[in-house]
């Protein structure tokens, strides 16, 4: 029986995936009742309390706000949960993943091939020009790059970026009217259901690609040769996010065979 940890596994796509996997796997679905993932301290403590062998880590937690919210640790809220917590969970749980026979990280993010997202290197916390769209798109691009940095280190863990595109998951509730109503209607008509998306994700967990890093927009592979996956930018962002966590996440004995 596999042990699958799903950050953001109590609702939306993560919740549907958790419900599907529970038939055969031990699923640990993490939600706000378990820890505030906008907090570096609480996320690190949560990771420390998880099992010492994990077969799959699914990163789907996010929180989006129309107004800029700063956490007690001084991070913009979207960046904290969408970028920093995903980095921290992946790195802190790397040793537990390495103990599994076929470990995989599945990150529900990534904008590879979608040009809207970029890293605001001069102001990553968006203290000057915040918008929910800018924060969300920066977070998606950041996850592309952090996956590149993760895969660049020797590891048995397979990292999969997956952008499900339009899903009728209720995310439109974060928008103002009339965009909320329009987006909700579009998602209901054109979006995939959370159950259909969860089925695709479960298949990826059952049969992850052999490459250290792969990226998909829905079912279509995305080339890692695109500029969105630039290794130099990945290393730069990796160092930046590590700094927010108090320095590089160490203490793991990484697989080198």
Automatic annotation (TrEMBL):
Keyword presence, Oxidoreductase: yes
PANTHER family according to UniProt: ALCOHOL DEHYDROGENASE-LIKE C-TERMINAL DOMAIN-CONTAINING PROTEIN, YALI0E05731P
Domain of life (superkingdom): Bacteria
Transmembrane segments: none
UniProt keywords, alphabetically: Oxidoreductase
The UniProt record lists the keyword Transport: no
Name under which the protein is recorded: NAD(P)-dependent dehydrogenase (Short-subunit alcohol dehydrogenase family)
